[in-house]
Amino acid sequence: MRASVGDRVCVHSRTVGQPERHGVVLEVRGRPDGPPYLIRWDDGHEGLFFPGADSVLEVKQYSTA
């Protein structure tokens, strides 16, 4: 996974009935564009994140206009 500031991350639950976690990349601390990432989760918490197989990156779309 290669992320940039502003990209969104979704982590699927490993337990049935538990919600997914969603957040936005605030900083990229790895090289180049690799983990760990500083994430602000939608519940307001922030923390370093190393993506796993249960993670999906939603790349920020940039306008060309």
Molecular structure report:
This protein has 65 residues and is mainly β. The protein has one domain. The protein has no helices and 5 strands. It has a 5-stranded antiparallel beta sheet, with no helix packed on it. A hairpin with an 8-residue loop joins strand 2 and strand 3. It is globular.
Helix content: under 10%
Largest sheet: 5 strands, antiparallel
Which runs of at least 5 residues are low in confidence (pLDDT < 50)?
A: none
Number of strands: 5
Rg over CA atoms, rounded to whole Å, is 12 Å
User: So how many helices?
Assistant: 0
Order of helices and strands: EEEEE
Proportion of strand residues: 35-45%
Number of domains: 1
Distance between the termini: 27 Å
Structural class: mainly beta
> What topology, given as strand order, has the largest sheet?
4-3-2-1-5
Shape: globular
Mean pLDDT: 86
State the gist of this model.
This protein has 65 residues and is mainly β.
Helix-strand blueprint:
Layout: E1 8-11, E2 21-28, E3 37-41, E4 46-49, E5 55-58
Main features:
single chain; mainly beta; five-stranded antiparallel β-sheet; 5 strands; globular
